Amino acid sequence: QVTLRETGPALVKTTQTLTVTCTFSGFSLSSAGMCVSWLRQSPGKAPEWLALIDWDGDKYYSPSLETRLTISKDPSKNQVLLTVTNVDPMDTATYYCARSSTEYKSVSGYQNYFDPWGQGILVTVSP
Amino acid sequence: EIVMTQTPRSLPVSPGEPASVSCTSSQSLRDSDGGHIYVDWYLQRPGESPQVLIYSLSHRASGVPDRFSGGGSVTEFTLKISRVAAEDVGLYYCMQRLEYPYTFGQGTKLE
Prior knowledge:
The complex is a heterodimer of chains A (127) and B (111). Chain A has 127 residues and is mostly beta strands.
């Protein structure tokens, strides 16, 4: 069974750096095709994809936030980290991590949809 | 980036009735390699994380009841529920993963 769990601070102050950790089980990020993404969801809004790291260490970022985001992995600990620098109240959101795969099937193409998601962690940025 | 637009934003439905959610993309979501259309549907029940229902336009995810179906063209997509059940209440989102950044529709609240 694949599970992911997000941990980190519940409250950070404006201009500080936020680091959230995704600890997962049931798969290895060292296995070809495995990927982990970070997404966030501000209150009352749709989810927003932030960043992805794959088994090979390649990283992809949302262009609107790329200068403030860093995604990294520690396969030995089954963890993926996301750092957000210079936070402000607009970064208040529930942060999720989710697994995806680059496996290709002829019937349905690349299997890089998000499944499953972690439970999420609500991070509030105070002024 | 690709913009996803969902309608309606709210969908009141009685149990046992059918329901339909629409989503359009600002550009084609068909890839140039295998011709697959990379749009997915997620359900977020109250207080829960999103879960995938439909991937690659029309493929039901594991464990998803067959009352859920997805279809459409390269820019217009539809999620259908043949007979709404009480546990289907929540927010439905379409998402494109043809290219980065992956983007979501604004959501449809089924109630």
